[in-house]
Design brief:
Layout: H1 6-22, H2 28-35, H3 41-52, E1 56-58, E2 64-66, H4 69-73, H5 77-82, E3 84-86, E4 89-90, E5 100-101, E6 106-108, H6 109-112, E7 119-123, E8 139-143, E9 152-157, E10 160-169, E11 172-176, E12 185-187, E13 195-206, E14 209-212
Length: about 220
C-alpha cells in the first residue's frame, strides 16, 4: 500500500470523519464544498487515486468501501478525550440525605471500557445476530483481542467481514449466527490462515442505549 500525499491524506480523513458522523458516504458535491474544490472532477480524481493506492475499493456498481474498516471506526485519541458525562454531585444509596451538588469530574469511555485504546466500533448491516438484540444500524463495540471458543466477534474471511459467535475446534472454526434463518459458516483447518480477527464483541449501542456483552 503506497503512502498518501498530504492532500490525499486530507481527502481520506475527510471521508472517514464524514462516515463516522453521518453513517453514510458524502455526495461528490458535499466533498467538493468541504475541501474547497471548484469542480466535482477533483473528487473523482482523488477517489481514483485512493483506489489505486488500495485505501479504497470500488465495486462494479461504482460504490466505494474502505479497504481497512478499522481505519474508519477506530476512535481517535482526541475524540476520546472529548466524550464524557459530567458528574454533578453526590446522592446517597442509604438513608435519605440532602443532595450535594458539586463538580466531581467526568465519566469517560475509559470508565466503561478500561482498555479503551484497543476499542473501536462498527455499524451493523443485517439481522444475523438479532437474537442477541443486534439489529441493522446498531453500533457494535469491539476490542482488538483474539477470540476464545464461544466468543462473539468480527472476523474477516476471504476478503469479507461478518459478526458471528466463533466456535473454535481442531476440526475447524464454526461461525454461528444468532438467527435461525441464517446458516453457519464453516472454516476448515487448512483455511485458518485466511481468517483475520477484527475484534471481540464487548457490547452494542442501539436506540435503547448501551448493551454490554454478558461475558468478560
Amino acid at each position: 500500500m503506497a503512502d498518501l500525499t498530504n492532500k490525499q491524506q486530507q481527502f481520506y480523513n475527510t471521508l472517514i470523519g464524514y462516515v463516522r458522523k453521518h453513517f453514510r458516504w458524502p455526495t461528490y458535491r458535499e466533498l467538493a464544498d468541504r475541501l474547497g474544490f471548484s469542480s466535482e472532477n477533483s473528487v473523482t480524481q482523488y477517489y481514483n487515486t485512493l483506489v489505486s493506492k488500495q485505501f479504497l475499493k470500488k465495486d462494479s456498481q461504482g460504490n466505494y468501501t474502505f479497504t481497512n474498516p478499522t481505519d474508519v471506526w477506530m476512535a481517535r485519541d482526541e475524540d476520546r478525550s472529548t466524550r464524557s458525562i459530567p458528574i454533578l454531585g453526590e446522592i446517597t444509596a442509604g438513608t435519605m440525605e440532602e443532595a450535594i451538588e458539586a463538580d466531581l469530574g467526568e465519566i469517560t469511555i475509559g470508565d466503561f471500557f478500561p482498555n479503551a485504546s484497543n476499542v473501536f466500533g462498527l455499524r451493523v448491516k443485517g439481522d444475523s445476530m438479532k437474537d442477541l438484540g443486534i439489529s441493522t444500524g446498531d453500533r457494535v463495540i469491539l476490542s482488538k483481542k483474539e477470540l476464545r471458543d464461544g466468543d462473539v466477534g468480527a472476523v474477516m474471511y476471504n476478503g469479507e467481514t461478518t459478526l458471528k459467535r466463533a466456535h473454535v475446534r481442531k476440526s475447524g472454526v464454526r461461525l454461528e449466527p444468532a438467527n435461525p434463518d441464517h446458516d453457519d459458516i464453516i472454516i476448515e483447518p487448512g483455511e485458518f490462515e485466511e481468517v483475520r480477527v477484527l475484534g471481540k464483541y464487548l457490547g452494542h449501542i442501539s436506540e435503547d442505549g448501551l448493551v454490554k456483552a454478558s461475558y468478560n
